[in-house]
Amino acid sequence: MARILLLFLLGLTGVCSGHGVFMDRLASKKLCADDECVYTISLARAQEDYNAPDCRFINVKKGQQIYIYSKLVKENEAGEFWAGSVYGDHQAEMGIVGYFPSSLVKEQHVYQEATKEVPTTDIDFFCE
């Protein structure tokens, strides 16, 4: 019985250590093209490099294209951040969705206007 309990606890430790962490929220609301925030709002181009300060953000290189999925609603003195994924020559970051300062990019093409105001959830700021 003790062996089974020990194996269970070791397995549980392994599962818990591989799940990630919930980080502080950057905003309580976000703007999206739809109620679920799954449709692309726009395509933007990075005007300069950006090094992600933590796992909620993505690294961006000048000239990379970024698909924008949501725009956090600015609160108090916080910066204005958008969520998107990098598209371009730097394969290491492609497909990873994260935040970056909106001032970093210039929108090239708007697919749909971000008119739906949706509350953010803990999962919006979850890091693996």
TrEMBL record:
Gene that encodes it: OTOR
Signal peptide span: 1-18
This protein's record includes keyword Transcription: no
PROSITE patterns: SH3
Residue ranges constituting the SH3 domain according to the UniProt record: 39-110
Protein name: Otoraplin
Subcellular location: Secreted
Gene3D superfamilies from the UniProt entry: SH3 Domains (2.30.30.40)
Similarity field: Belongs to the MIA/OTOR family.
GO biological process assignments: cartilage condensation
Any one GO cellular component localisation term in the record: extracellular region
Keyword Secreted part of the UniProt annotation: yes
Keyword line: Disulfide bond, Secreted, SH3 domain, Signal
Stretches of the chain forming a coiled coil according to its record: none
Superkingdom assignment: Eukaryota
InterPro entries referenced in this protein's UniProt entry, alphabetically: OTOR (IPR042801), Otoraplin_SH3 (IPR035554), SH3-like_dom_sf (IPR036028), SH3_domain (IPR001452)
